[in-house]
Amino acid sequence: MAATEVSKGKSICGEGQPLDAIHLIATGSVKASFPGGELILKKGDVVGLCDIAFDSHFFSYTTVENSSFISIPVKNKNALVALSKSNPDIARMMFNSMINQVFQFMAAYAKTKETCSGMYSKITSLYDTYVGICSKNNFSPRSLPQFENLTEFLLDEDVNPWVLPYYVAMKDFPPELKNLLASKSGFFNGFLNQASTDIHSAFSIYETMEDYMAENAEIFMQESRGDIFDLYLSLYGRVQHDTDDAKQVVAILNDIANYIK
Hints:
Layout (H helix, E strand, L loop, with lengths): L3 E3 L4 E3 L7 E7 L1 E6 L2 E6 L3 E2 L12 E4 L3 E7 L5 H8 L1 H49 L8 H4 L14 H9 L3 H9 L1 H36 L7 H9 L7 H17 L1
Antiparallel strand pairs: 1-8, 2-7, 3-6, 3-8, 4-5, 4-7
């Protein structure tokens, strides 16, 4: 199979486009973007695998550097079974790449969920500390309008807790076991479709988490001010410098800036 050269920054395929081929990365790297995040695919990974259980792409793929690809037509769902029988080397790379991609996605999902869960307690703790410093110095604390609408992070639905450990375990399989599993066409086809389905089942939940983070990020810092960062910045101008309170306020300002990053 001949490889196709693609220059840096070019689209390979985008959201909503029909999934009629997958693309093995021969050289270079690709950014797979989705609402709220991205994955980085490298040599040996396969572009399009995350959407393989569906008729169109949800991810958008763009080259990070000059890259080359071997394109493999996917005319129907049986094409993968035929491929695993006719070209075991490519089947093995597809198997390993899918493990890598679903692991990256589910790890990002878990990290985002952890961030959301911690936002509520961090915001309430910062505001309580602010009020405490004001009270200690006989200042009247300013109100924070967004704080009144703050709600604790709760999900109506979630990815099953066994999903990430399942793919973590598979990622650690010895190479000979991965090669064996990739050679079993029934398992190979089922695994790719299940992994694709697992990723897509998490998309809507992922977007909910991203919305929660985006909304509450404005409580920390926003262009129009009136946020926690502004409260502490104003507080620094009021407390006696070279005191423990001033040092604490500076530390908190740095913490807020780093947290937002």
